[in-house]
Design brief:
By secondary structure, the protein is α+β, with helices and mostly antiparallel strands. It has a single domain (about 1-210), classed as Peptide deformylase (Peptide Deformylase). It is about 15% helix and about 30% strand. The chain has 3 helices and 9 strands, in the order E-H-E-E-E-E-E-E-E-H-E-H. The strands form 2 sheets. It has a 6-stranded mixed beta sheet with strand order 1-8-7-4-3-2. About 45% of the residues are buried.
């Protein structure tokens, strides 16, 4: 089993510059996937994985579609079909300028997640959070629930065990933004949306006040 990396450098809490969350607000927060609404200033790197001529954008499923409430099946075949799904998810996530995307969000009931952060691309097949520590309060949104944001609690630190596209087993750990993203995306695989765990929804005026105060 390999160790993919340590993403503990992504830290933050609600009210800070890089609290863990996934939806970007209008204006200063361009339309994006699962990204910290107060961490919009983090520069998103371009996809650095292998490019393929047959990569394609997939339609992102929106709230109300029953597929978002179904539990995904484990991947058992690490074949070209899986590779195509991962390539397409990376392309779709890049187009959305986002940080994380789960397979059910593109209509596929498989336990597959992709995360893009700080010029890094992590593809997680059959991910399992094997360790959680601490707690952080986050603002989150979701490409599948456009235009809405909420406050909820997530672990401050997580360790995730997963397979890559070749079927090799890895572990990765991180805190802050990464911990929030990994938690959010793995929830999708079990039919759970962030709104199921929300403490309260965020009023658009709060986001406007954040812009006016120049918070980054």
């Amino acid at each position: 089993m390999g160790v993919q990396g340590d993403w503990s450098s992504w830290q933050g809490s609600w009210g800070g510059a890089t609290s863990g969350a996934w939806g970007r607000a209008p204006a200063a927060w361009p339309q994006a996937c699962e990204q910290d609404a107060l961490g919009y200033a983090m520069q998103l790197g371009e996809y650095t994985g292998k490019e393929h001529d047959n990569m394609a954008l997939r339609q992102i499923v929106k709230e109300g579609d029953s597929i978002l409430r179904k539990k995904c099946r484990p991947v058992t075949a690490f074949d070209q079909k899986l590779w195509q799904l991962l390539d397409d998810m990376n392309e779709t996530l890049d187009d959305a300028q986002g940080l994380g995307l789960a397979a059910p969000q593109v209509g596929i009931l498989k336990r597959v997640v992709v995360i893009h952060m700080n010029d890094e691309v992590v593809e997680m097949v059959n991910p399992e959070i094997i360790e959680r520590r601490g707690e952080q309060e986050c603002m989150e949104g979701c490409l599948s629930i456009p235009g809405e944001w909420g406050i909820l609690n997530r672990p401050e630190f997580v360790k995730v065990r997963y397979y890559d596209r070749n079927g090799d087993l890895y572990e990765i750990e991180g805190e802050g933004l990464f911990a929030s993203c990994a938690s959010h995306e793995t929830d999708h695989l079990d039919g759970v949306l962030y709104k199921d765990k929300v403490i309260r929804m965020v009023d658009p005026s709060e986001l406007e006040e954040t812009e006016d105060n120049g918070e980054e």
